Amino acid sequence: MGEKQLFTVKDKVIAVTGGSSGLGLRMVKVLAEHGARVASIARSHDHVDASYQDRDVLQITGDVTSSQDISAAFDQIEQTLGPLSVVFNNAGVAHKARVLDTTPEMFDHMFAVNVAGAFFVAREAARRMIAQGRGGAIINTTSILGERPQKGAAVYSMTKACVTQMTRALALEFAAHDIRVNALSPGWFPTGINEAELAGPAGSFLKGCNPMRRLGDLSDIDGAVLLLASDASRYMTGSIITIDGGHQL
Q: Where would I find the beta strands (DSSP E) of the chain?
């Protein structure tokens, strides 16, 4: 199989949660540009730019913390685009707060979206892939903070540690059904969650700590996205791909 075919996602039906902003929006764009039939699931698509909306991307409004929304979104994808091949389980939230300032509401919100939401999206995707008998791929978004926490992000780091371990657990359980479960572990990328912070002294500090002396550009995830969505990763499961410019070193 040639390189062009090996990494192709052409005509694959791919869902991306949290697909209206940040890394999720970048995933949607690169997958659509490479010929995938993409559905973006997000609580709102109001701020997505017009050039992106012109692409044939199915935009679905839904909340990953609602099992009804998850099921309805996958029903719509199957009815409109066809059987699901790949899910990028990317939706996530963060509240920046020291431990003593973290409220029960912050704690519950982060675990509801980042952990429970991710788990039940993966479960619903796997259930449908098993019913189809065609296998598939689930790609979770974790973070380097799941392995290397920092002050002010304790609960967020805890949720991402859960996602990392969930990736391995689901990979083990679903391998018999030819469903691969892997994860992307980004380092510091300016997104809607943190771009204001990274534009200031914190961003300069983190650049200085990075062996490559820069923050991530959204396009830096493209190769890993195509790898995990395509047959190029057909013998990979339970893997965590770190994209951080060497920050953890």
A: 13-17, 37-42, 58-61, 86-89, 136-141, 179-186, 240-243
CA distances from 139 to 4, 33, 87 (A): 21, 19, 6
CA distance 185 to 145: 9
Q: What are the structural domains, with CATH classification, of the chain?
A: 3-243 (3.40.50.720)
pLDDT tens-place string over residues 181-197: 999 999 888 877 776 67
Q: Is 235 a catalytic residue?
A: no
pTM, full prediction = 0.92
Of 74, 88, 119, 156, the active-site residue reads 156
Q: What is the C-alpha to C-alpha distance for residues 99 and 26, in angstroms, rounded to an integer?
A: 31
Tokens of 60: 């679905």
Q: In whole angstroms, give the CA distance from residue 221 to residue 38.
A: 17
